[in-house]
Write a structure and sequence with these properties.
Blueprint lengths: L5 H60 L36 H12 L1 H12 L13 H7 L5 H13 L4 H15 L7
Helix pairs in contact: 2-3, 5-6
């Protein structure tokens, strides 16, 4: 048997494909809105990516024409701000440096001769009560976070120091409660 001509075979294949697609059309129509929406989103994302790539290339070219700022205008630090109170009134001027007593000058002269002695003195001065570095600058939450690490003796030392120096009621209350908890039998320091 001789095969049918190619145009006739193509036409028959086209007719069968059309009938198959027509049968699938109701099922495809339900998913059509989702398909269209996803294609629109994909297209918009591609456009955004291309615009971003063009902006990056433009930045590269323009950066060669414009010198780099040493200190950008948007970068400010607390030291750069004026000593005026802020709107909420919390900014205070930095403390004035105190006049050095003669003993401190003698210690500096000694430190110039013995650098190891100066380092040991700085370490001792840096550590506050119970070995807490910068205790006087700690906030209540910062101290609370460290309390579990201290023994009863260290908490007592902190409480004594607090009462003798700044005597902040919130600090002394928290330290006294912690000390009471540590001294109760069966607590085991927790």
């Amino acid at each position: 048997m001789k095969p049918l001509p190619l145009p006739l075979r193509v036409a028959a294949g086209l007719a069968v494909t059309t009938v198959e697609r027509a049968r699938e059309l109701p099922r495809q129509l339900t998913g059509l809105p989702v398909t269209v929406a996803s294609q629109v989103l994909q297209f918009s994302m591609r456009v955004q990516q291309q615009v971003t790539e063009l902006a990056i290339k433009g930045d590269d070219v323009l950066s060669t024409l414009r010198p780099v700022e040493e200190s950008p205008s948007w970068a400010t630090f607390d030291e750069d701000l004026p000593d005026e109170p802020s709107r909420n009134g919390h900014r205070t001027p930095p403390p004035e440096p105190e006049a050095e007593p003669t003993a401190a000058k003698a210690a500096e002269a000694e430190a110039a001769e013995d650098p190891w002695a100066a380092e040991e003195r700085a370490i001792v001065e840096e550590a506050g009560p119970a070995g807490v570095v910068g205790y006087d600058e700690l906030t209540l939450p910062q101290l609370r976070a460290r309390l579990r690490r201290f023994s009863a003796e260290e908490v007592e030392e902190l409480l004594t120091y607090e009462r003798a120096h700044q005597n902040r009621s919130s600090f002394t209350g928290m330290l006294a409660r912690r000390l009471g908890n540590l001294q109760q039998p069966g607590e085991g320091g927790q």
